[in-house]
Amino acid sequence: MRYTTGAANATEPPQKFTFNPKEGIDNPALVISDDTEPAVKPRLCLLKREEGEGFGFFLRKERSCRGHVVQQVSPWSAAERSGLRDGDRVLEVNEDFVDNQEYEKVVMKVQASGQQLCLLVLRAEDYEVAVSEGMDLVALARAHRGEDCARPRLCHISRVPGLGLGLGIIPIEGERGRYYLSPVGEGPAEKAGVQPGDRLIWMNGSMVSTLTHSALAKMFRKSAEHVTIMVIDSRSEASYARRRLPILPAFASVHNLPHRPKTLHLVQGPQGYGFLLRQEKLSSGRIAHLMREVDPHSPAELSGMEDGDMLLAVNGEQAENREHEDIVSKIRQSGQQVTLTTISIQGRDYYTQLGFSPLLFYDQTNPKRESFPEPTLPRRDLPSNSPCPRLCVLHREGTGFGFNLACVQNRTGTYISQVVEGGAGEKAGLWEGDVVVEVNGQKVEEEHFEEVLRTIKKAGSPLRLLVLERAGYEKLRKSGLTISCGLISHSMQVPDSTQDCFV
User: Would you state the pLDDT for residue 420?
Assistant: First the structure.
């Protein structure tokens, strides 16, 4: 299409059109306007919660589709106040792109965030458009904060004899509480990740914006052998200011932090796991769950557990702020194997001083419990053709677990009387007539029907049933063998179609 301008239309507003390269433009002075606002635009939500308060939303992962979905935003919660809405898809958690990360890892990032959480999200409709059109979501998130914006850096600096920290602190003229840094070339600070001109934001758990230069210098002198600081370059600092976003440790990339959490995989032995979990009050006044009385040569010691280690997570779920009884129950319900995330005494003291959770930078994904080897217990006089129990893991569906229980009147022992076709029980491998030996690791074969039923109702989802067909059950009983997970031949397990967690 061809347009020209003249006296008759000189006062008309510019017209929008699609340029046809074959026809060209007659008048190079013609004003061409077009929509500059992107069709798909992420939204930044900063959630601030009070002590003891949750963020107020569920994070859900649907295995049938991509992305992490926000659901059930609570009224008047930190989530609602931030502008978070049901159906939003999470692209970033604390400036870290998570759309392609595993659900458990994303949940842990959210739970470890402390009192503030930053989420970059897309509306459900925009997310579907972006995915269907093959848009680069990483580039979309990066464009939101600016191409030149880098994350702040947490740098741990150790003093070197003769050089000290190798760092100069220079106040920015006319700007109280703002400092830039001048590291010595090849010195301790530069090797720890500090770059010339970096802005100093935070030191050993304290924001420096309220400190005078003399007070800050005194803090550095009193820092003994080590100091941990958070820095950022000037262009990135401007990006945070443009987005009205505080610069928090949760946003940082880490450089040589001295202590990291460790993951322990424990398989129960004949005497259990071999440690005591105790709730204790630390010198800081904080309540923590500590590992004590680790038995020599026990599964706990062999996994790397040490006396005084602090418990951080059980099977990938944060445990720091949970009640002691809840944690003990979680470990017991885990059955014959459990994954514990812990940190050493020195590590817990270090992170307590800094004021944030050790899980904040823990980027190792815990393996799923189903990938564990089955525990091997002694098989005394077990014939090669002996029947083997089966561990069936059931995930509750809309109609329940999909099986019925029955018993012989006035006798102990409970069995599966009916398995619903296509239900959770059938998918997990339950058969009609199976005798229930254990419920989530708790032996129930000698319990009466009512007690077994009560145990299953309290167990929640997933439900782990150790079962054995009746003929095989009677055969093992007559042989005098103890029926346990050590005799399992196989385990049929079907993963959840969805996962969700309230945060």
Answer: 84
Give the Cα separation of 483 and 444 in Å (integer). 11
Encode 62-83: b = buried (16+ Cβ within 10 Å), e = exposed.
eeeeebbbbeebeeebbbbebe
pLDDT tens for 103-149 read 888 888 898 888 899 999 999 999 999 988 889 999 999 998 888 88
Q: pLDDT above 70 covers what percent of the chain? A: 80
Instruction: Report yes or no: 394 and 371 within 8 Å, Cβ to Cβ.
Output: no
**Which has the closest alpha carbon to 448: 408, 478, 476?**
408
Q: Which residues contact 66 (CB under 8 A, 6 or more apart)?
A: 99, 131
- With a CB cutoff of 8 Å and minimum separation 6, the contacts of 476 are 386, 387, 468, 483, 487
Phi, psi angles (nearest 5°) of residue 409: -55, 135
B/e letters for 235-255, b = 16+ CB within 10 Å, e = fewer, are ebbebbeeeeeebbbbbbebb
Q: Is the dihedral of CA 333, 338, 339, 341 positive or negative?
A: positive
Please give the Cα distance from 414 to 451 (Å, whole number).
Answer: 10
Over residues 183-224, the pLDDT tens digits come to 999 899 999 999 999 999 999 888 888 888 888 888 888 877
What stretches in the chain show pLDDT beneath 50? 1-19, 21-35, 364-386, 484-497
Q: Which two tokens stand for residue 228?
A: 């941990």
Q: Please classify residue 266 by burial: count the beta carbons closer than 10 Å to its beta carbon, then call 0-12 exposed, 13-18 middle and 19+ buried.
A: buried
Dist CA 196 CA 190 (whole Å): 8
d(CA 126, CA 11): 38
Model confidence, pTM = 0.62
DSSP assignment of 253-313 equals EEE--S---EEEEEE-BTTBS--EEEEEE-TTS-EEEEEE-PPTTSHHHHHT--TTPEEEE
The DSSP secondary structure of 478-497, one letter per residue, reads HHTPPP-GGG---EEE---S
